[in-house]
Design brief:
Length: 120
């Protein structure tokens, strides 16, 4: 069932952040099918984070003053990126960046973590 089945959202309506991101990924970015649920999006995030070939990035998110420490996960075979906000202790978003891993490389003081050595 669609996340919006039987519901209308109007300009100015406050919705939970997770639902807002789900709706954006479905209806604006069109990266997930219209029948994707929040549970499915969360499962995609977990699969991305846990995959052995996922790149891990540590960086400062520059659009917030002062910048916030965030962790980025990008899996090129899935095309999925996950952003974990360390200071807020939550997954900030899940998306499919057109620029791939360059999205994280372009952030403030971005460092890629070597998963084998666990070094920056």
């Amino acid at each position: 069932m669609s996340p919006t089945a039987g519901r209308a959202y109007h300009r100015g309506t406050l919705v939970a952040t997770a639902l807002w991101h789900l709706l954006k990924r479905i209806y604006v970015d069109q990266d997930w099918p219209a029948d994707t649920t929040l549970d499915q999006l969360n499962a995609d995030a977990r699969a991305t984070i846990q995959a052995g070939d996922t790149e891990i990035w540590c960086y400062g998110y520059y659009r917030i003053d002062p910048p916030r420490l965030q962790w980025g996960f990008f899996n090129s075979s899935m095309g999925i990126a996950v952003v974990y906000d360390d200071e807020a202790d939550l997954i900030a978003t899940v998306f499919k960046p057109v620029e791939g891993t360059r999205f994280f490389a372009g952030q403030l003081s971005a460092y890629r973590v070597d998963r084998q050595e666990w070094a920056i």
